[in-house]
Amino acid sequence: MAITVGLSLYTTRLVLNALGVNDFGIFNLVGGAVMMLTFLNNSMAAATQRFMSYTEGSGDLEKLKTIFNVSIVSHLAVGGVVFMLMELIGYILFDGVLSIPAERIEAAKWVYQFTVVSTLVTIISVPYDAVINAHENMLFYGIIGILEAVLKLSIAIYIANSTHDQLITYGLLMAVSTVFTLYIRRIYCHRHYSECEIYLRKHFSKPLFKEMTSFAGWSLLGSSTSMITGYGQGILINTFFGTSVNAAQAIAGQVNGQLGAFGNTMLKALNPVIAKSEGAGNRELMLKASAVGNKVAFFLLMIFYIPMLVEAPFVLKIWLDNVPDYTITFCQLALIRSLLEQLTITFSSSISAVGNIRKFQIYSSILAASPLVITYIFFKYEYPVYALYIVLITYTIMSSVVLIYFTHKLCGLVIEEYLKDTFLRCIVSFIIVICCAGIITYSMNESSTRFFLVGLTTVLTYSIAVYKIGFTINERALIRKNLKYGPILTGKEPKTI
């Protein structure tokens, strides 16, 4: 992840310089469907992974093979539907909806078609991502992540020196790299995991197909609403403010995504544990893993986000030669929203593990549609563009309340314990650390020395605040035991247990 983050941030700098602000904005507006459907892909993979991890908890290999075959069929069907929808949507978008300079319309259409192809391949490959997640194979994810980062860097260097249309070339090569890495996942899974055996006549079950389709359908309702809302916000920004502000939004997304990579990797390892615990009938362990997961996800992001929050102007000037307007504000607000999300981020996995997701997805979908409507009203009445992120932060808070309620109702979460042991400890730790970092920022002029001192202060105060305030007495005892006996490094339990 460390290698991937460094390469990805440098790649963004090269791509922005090569394409220019407007073409970079066009790619992220039109190719935003890739990001949108990456989110859809993750949601669908989570639905398939839930059944695989749950079944692994019960140890039924034959059922795992059936689940894999059923998921292959269902995702082929979904891929076909999405392909037709994207072609229809593309026709509508380029018929007067998107605000793109006339001379770049043709290039934008090519980028969109490359997006359609890579999206189709991504959806079809979802079952393989689910298998890797279910087996908690973080080593393979690390290798694939580095490979993807190296490919993107190579593409960025190539287009910086290309004499062809750089936007079209970039779109084509990004699609090729997506297909290539997904094909590697497919080969790896068939060679290493026995459940990856495509034999529909032997391993297909209509009752299981109906059960998985019903579950995936409700999951798809929630993820599709969020997906449409997310992409719609990019279109609203484009309509009211133009492609240069789309570029600022894309850079904020890059910063947020790359700095949050460590937390996302931790969640990939934790989600199978949640589902397997429920599959094995251990509800107590499932809830404990979920509650601690929220806390650790928050703390993993906090150590990276706080220096960026207080030093965003300095970092962006160093990172990018040309910083688009609104980028700094977008980055700071996006980071705050992402931190708030971590406080309840694993609860959706707990609800999915239990399996009764219909009401939860209905409420979540209704709530997820609200930011798009409210943002449109704000922009219509000439509110500033950063009002979008204020709306998103408000939505995140409301969404967290819904998650806590349904985790309590469906899984038995004790809300008072969650607020005391997770929420308050995270918020207090955050306030202490950011205040200490902020004192350095406001007492010195902007410089590399100040940035270094902010980072050093953050690490020191973070270590004390998180250990003493963020973790409970039992959690601190577990940390000390791990440090003393080293079970995390050796994979062995200490002799005293």
TrEMBL record:
Keyword RNA-binding (UniProt): no
Lineage of the organism: Bacteria, Pseudomonadati, Bacteroidota, Cytophagia, Cytophagales
InterPro entries attached to this UniProt entry: Poly_Biosynth_Transport
PANTHER family: PSMA PROTEIN, PST FAMILY PREDICTED COLANIC ACID TRANSPORTER
Keyword check for Cell membrane: yes
Name of the molecule in the record: O-antigen/teichoic acid export membrane protein
Membrane topology: Multi-pass membrane protein
Segments passing through the bilayer: 24-46, 67-94, 110-131, 138-161, 167-184, 296-320, 326-348, 360-379, 385-406, 427-445, 451-471
